[in-house]
Design a protein that fits this description.
- One of its GO terms (molecular function) is glycosyltransferase activity.
- It comes from Wocania arenilitoris.
- It holds the Pfam family Glycos_transf_2.
- This protein is α/β, with parallel strands linked by helices.
- The protein contains 13 helices and ten strands.
- Strands 3-2-1-4-8-6-9 form a seven-stranded mixed sheet, sandwiched between helices.
- Helix 4 links the parallel strand 2 and strand 3.
- Helix 1 runs parallel beside helix 12, helix 3 runs parallel beside helix 4 and helix 10 packs across helix 13.
- The longest helix has 26 residues.
- It is elongated.
- The mean pLDDT is 93.
């Protein structure tokens, strides 16, 4: 057999597994019906860790304060900021009696470690139910707290939410950022519904203080500066204690990076934590990426050489249809429908970007926190 023959058979295998992945696995979230939860008036501590975020706090903290929920406090953590972050926090605190400030000084043992600052904030929180977001995030509705905490129950102590990015017209990097966020969310929501939760995002995440202290907090990965959200969830989440929340009133939104360079730097930092995931999660995620890379590489090569091109094109279209169906339904749920028309182009760009990030991370370590 020729080399193209081998490529052709590998391509068939790749398409087979990808169609199964999209239609059977990602469909766990794509076709999931939204169930209305009973409102709970449980006491909640909203925790925001900020480092040099004075301007973002001025812009976004009012949307947290304005939440229509009767029993919540806001724990603001100043992580050794060098700007006016602490002053802004104190100004808000003087006007609202449900704001608590935790002022963290640089610690030689934990210098520049967000997990250390977050741990102090969690200890200071008066409530068992904790809801996390970032200083540059804003809930899309006044019912964010209500929607997220409604998923807590006797068994469910971890709630995975969705943190989107604001839309910018005629911006390729904005579409790429939102597409990557959509794909990641579809994946971790589907994993969770399949009983294999592996990550969450700190922009919109909730868990109990009991869960945190039972796991000894971030101690098992404290020396790894990134991963206060995904590494913690990867360690403690399981089929029985994890729930997802994807109602549109539960979303948070953030201002995205505006250049490929800054986004690339941010993603290097995020992706660097994946090597610390549980082995089964690393294997699954590696296979998903490898099959994506092989699909586009082999498919394009076989079509360029017109090798069994009719069958290759049919398989190519079959896989794209499966992807359009599942990602399309997911995008509708997560209010990202405008991205679907660009799906093949954005996926190719993302696959190349992720490969570049992986190679860069092998060569040098990315920077962490701020």
């Amino acid at each position: 057999m020729s080399f193209l023959d081998y490529m052709y058979y590998v391509f068939i295998i790749v398409v087979f597994f990808q169609v199964i992945y999209y239609l059977l696995f990602l469909s766990q979230f794509a076709f999931l019906k939204l169930k209305k939860k009973t409102n709970k008036n449980i006491p909640v501590s909203v925790i925001i860790c900020a480092k040099n975020e004075a301007e973002n706090l001025k812009a976004f903290l009012p949307s947290i304060i304005a939440q229509e929920y009767s029993n919540f406090e806001i724990v603001l953590i100043n992580d050794a900021s060098q700007d006016e972050t602490l002053e802004i926090m104190e100004a808000f605190s003087s006007q609202h009696n449900n704001i608590k400030i935790v002022d963290v000084k640089n610690n030689e043992a934990f210098w520049g470690n967000k997990k250390y600052a977050l741990t102090l904030g969690i200890k200071a929180a008066k409530n068992n139910y904790l809801l996390f977001t970032d200083a540059d995030c804003s809930p899309v509705s006044k019912n964010w707290i209500k929607e997220m905490v409604s998923h807590f129950s006797h068994n469910k102590s971890i709630i995975l939410g969705y943190g989107t990015y604001s839309k910018v017209k005629n911006s390729l990097i904005n579409k790429l950022i939102r597409f990557e966020t959509l794909i990641t969310a579809t994946q971790y929501f589907s994993f969770a519904k399949t009983g294999i939760p592996y990550m969450g995002v700190g922009r919109n995440l909730a868990y109990t203080k009991t869960e945190f202290f039972n796991a000894r907090g971030f101690m098992s990965h404290m020396k790894i500066r990134s991963g206060d959200d995904d590494l913690f969830i990867n360690e403690v989440a399981n089929k029985g204690n994890t729930e997802i929340c994807f109602s549109k009133n539960s979303f948070t939104t953030s201002i995205p990076e505006t250049s490929f360079k800054t986004w690339f730097k941010q993603k290097r930092r995020h992706i660097s934590t994946a090597k610390y995931y549980k082995k089964k999660h690393k294997v699954l995620l590696a296979l998903i990426y490898l099959f994506n890379l092989l699909f586009w590489t082999l498919g394009i090569i076989l079509l360029v050489f017109q090798f069994e091109w009719k069958l290759v094109l049919s398989l190519f279209i079959l896989r794209l249809i499966a992807q359009y169906i599942t990602i399309g339904f997911s995008a509708k749920k997560l209010d990202e429908k405008d991205l679907i028309i660009y799906l093949p182009f954005l996926e190719i760009f993302l696959v190349i970007s992720q490969l570049t990030i992986f190679i860069n991370n092998l060569i040098s370590k990315p920077n962490h926190w701020k």
